[in-house]
């Protein structure tokens, strides 16, 4: 089936063809008609399955049927957790609407607000935003929602993980009650369903891939390694394999810097990307990586979240993530949209429990490979598949006063420094040392309240970082976030959202 049987008109079909898309992905085939009918939609599909076009194309179609947006108004609002994702989605919107007369714009924290306010003056048909900056703009009357027709929460699971629930609820309260709601996520977790209850009406539910299954087009293997030898080992793998574009995950910001430096010294061009880097440096690192000017991008989880680099051939886990689900997200960066990718992990004996967790989650024992000259002296014990079912997360209780994250997890957004509240972290008990978050400590509670209400369950107190899952992870978050978070998030935003920027020093990352 082609795109032309889905109800999209000629200017959009032409743009799709120019993108080189031949057939709609399964999620697109299901979501496009549903969105065009005006239904609320909840869609879950793994990373790289084309969700962006799944909501963008039908929204553009609908918006193009009637023109006209008033100054400072917005007709379609797309909320997303990180700056990079926001920029990427807007690029897609621009591409897909090139033959239409619609205006789009993207706003996120970490950069000046004034130019954003100026652009919004004319009104925009599609606004892509991270939650914190959007609230700031609203508090300054730069954006108005009475003309809003459609709301999209993209990467909704990540937004919850990153602690954006409170901001999302604030935004929902500002929107007209009559509107179309689209919720896109990698999974339908309990938290997502909880969020959906207050959001979508009688939704069409679309679910394409089983949760947590790794993409079949990704060839995965591990190289047992001694911890100290990982960097030279990676350099050798890159050289020998002649890998030209490699995304490497590091658990910590420091580790990312160190590894990028080592590779550069060994004549392999590399750039780190994480939350302690300025927005400019992050944008440049990503652009250089996409253009091929640097071969290796060394990223922390947060920084990498959701970044779409078409046909990324190689992903390397320089460290295994503490949270098994992050492994799935990481390797989802390769093998996208039908391309084949390769994901390798350098695993030292200390990481045995992470390895077991990943194998249990992905239901496979990962193939082991050996690199000549790098056989580990500290052997990595053999693993067998643990087939016990994984317990679902416990439902969270609300009620504790919120904590702020110090780690900033948030990536997202906020320039305003808001902190997200974290949600459930599973491993809360462990503190990771050395991780990026490391010593920032676990959050402290500030409680919150400006309004004294308990925060919502999801937000309960844990700080979280980017992906929140359990995180003891490192978050690089804080700044990383995309959000530009340069600013610390304020403990709670006063009602008029504007005022809040109070610095909270605790948030500063230590690392
Ligand atoms: P997701 O949001 O599900 O992770 P994206 O929307 O970022 O996925 O899309 C992943 C990649 O697939 C992008 O590079 C996008 O351009 C490409 N893509 C999307 N739809 C199609 C299609 N129908 N045919 C080919 N490539 C596509
Ligand atoms: Mg996406």
Distance between the termini: 51 Å
Range of helix content: 25-40%
Mean pLDDT: 78
How is the biggest beta sheet arranged?
7 strands, parallel
The SS-based structural class is: alpha/beta
Enumerate the spans where pLDDT stays under 50 for 5 or more consecutive residues: 395-511
Protein traits:
single chain, 511 residues, alpha/beta, 7-stranded parallel beta sheet, disordered C terminus, binds adenosine-5'-diphosphate, binds magnesium ion
Topology, please?
Layout: H1 10-19, H2 26-36, E1 41-44, H3 51-65, E2 74-79, H4 83-96, E3 104-107, H5 114-121, E4 124-129, H6 131-139, E5 150-153, H7 156-161, H8 165-174, E6 180-185, H9 190-197, E7 204-207, E8 218-224, H10 230-241, E9 246-249, H11 253-265, E10 270-273, H12 279-291, E11 296-299, H13 301-304, E12 314-317, H14 324-331, E13 341-347, H15 352-362, E14 367-368, E15 403-404, E16 444-445, H16 477-480
Parallel strand pairs: 1-6, 1-7, 2-4, 2-5, 3-4, 5-6, 8-13, 8-14, 9-11, 9-12, 10-11, 12-13
Antiparallel strand pairs: 15-16
Helix pairs in contact: 2-3, 3-4, 6-8, 14-15
The structure holds adenosine-5'-diphosphate and magnesium ion.
Adenosine-5'-diphosphate (ADP) binds at residues 21, 24-25, 28, 45, 47-53, 308, 310, 336-337.
Structural write-up:
This protein has 511 residues and is α/β, with parallel strands linked by helices. The chain has 16 helices and 16 strands. It has helices at residues 10-19, 26-36, 51-65, 83-96, 114-121, 131-139, 156-161, 165-174, 190-197, 230-241, 253-265, 279-291, 301-304, 324-331, 352-362, 477-480; strands at 41-44, 74-79, 104-107, 124-129, 150-153, 180-185, 204-207, 218-224, 246-249, 270-273, 296-299, 314-317, 341-347, 367-368, 403-404, 444-445. It has a seven-stranded parallel sheet with strand order 3-4-2-5-6-1-7, with helices on both faces. Helix 3 (51-65) crosses helix 4. It is globular, with a radius of gyration of 22 Å. It starts with 9 loop residues before the first helix and ends in a 31-residue tail after the last helix. The structure holds adenosine-5'-diphosphate (ADP) and magnesium ion. Adenosine-5'-diphosphate is lined by residues 21, 24-25, 28, 45, 47-53, 308, 310, 336-337.
